[in-house]
Sequence to fold (290 residues):
Amino acid sequence: MNQPADLSLKHLQGLFNIAFTELVHLHTGENESFLLSTANQQFVLKVYRKKRSQRVKVDEEIKLLNWLGHSGIKTVSESVIKHSHDRIMILQKFISGYMLTAPEPRDYQHLGQEIRLLHQLKPEGRDLPQLDFASVIAANWPDIENASFLSDKLILKLNSYKELVQKKFVFSGTALIHFDLHWGNILIDSSNSMVLLDWEECGVGNPILDLATVNTHLMKKASRSELLKGLLEGYQGQFTNEEMNLATMVKLLNLLGHIPSKLDMPQLKDPAAIFERYLGYFQILTDEGL
Fold:
């Protein structure tokens, strides 16, 4: 595929002062990623568009990754950040591994253990946002209410769920929250350890939010209860169905709030259908007990 000039091999060689020999496109989504090779090393290049990623936020993510690497949490560290035209570029050493495409209950149990270790860290002194109602839901809510592809009836229903979680969910907490945990952000390395990727959404808050984030990605699975059970067994925490379902609603509302600003992404060509599907998830959670 043809790349802009600032993503050419020659430009990247000069930008990072590394003798890259090959550039391979890996992924296009909200951001883009590339595999860069030298004669004896490989790197991953993450490219953020400025309109979606503030330089300060990306800088803080890099600092966090380096701190996590020294705190026993496996993630990508030793990152280099560069500013080029309308993009922010992060170069990281390539980690050899694979992503699970069909995780089983034991994998969810392992993930629960990893989340527990993460939540045991003390993030005091780190410049991390508080994951409260204002930042997680309210900040993007005007985009939902003004979305031309949504009916008034659907917005009214979403508002009822927003008011429900605002009234009943406890956002406060001091745990370090990844807030974007799914198997596309988890790499299994050569030692069978989990490497947690993509910390752009992280913050401080109620620890159940990480578990609920995993649960949002289980909503369409017939085996959700079994897989969620494995996750909670690994985490060794005690949460009621109401707490888990409310927290899952929080994450679902958070995900929906990001959609109106990302309509240029190919996977969002029918955003109204996504909102309708999520309404079905809200109903399932409501029926399970709140």
User: Anything to note?
Assistant: The chain has a mean pLDDT of 90. The two ends are 49 Å apart (CA to CA).
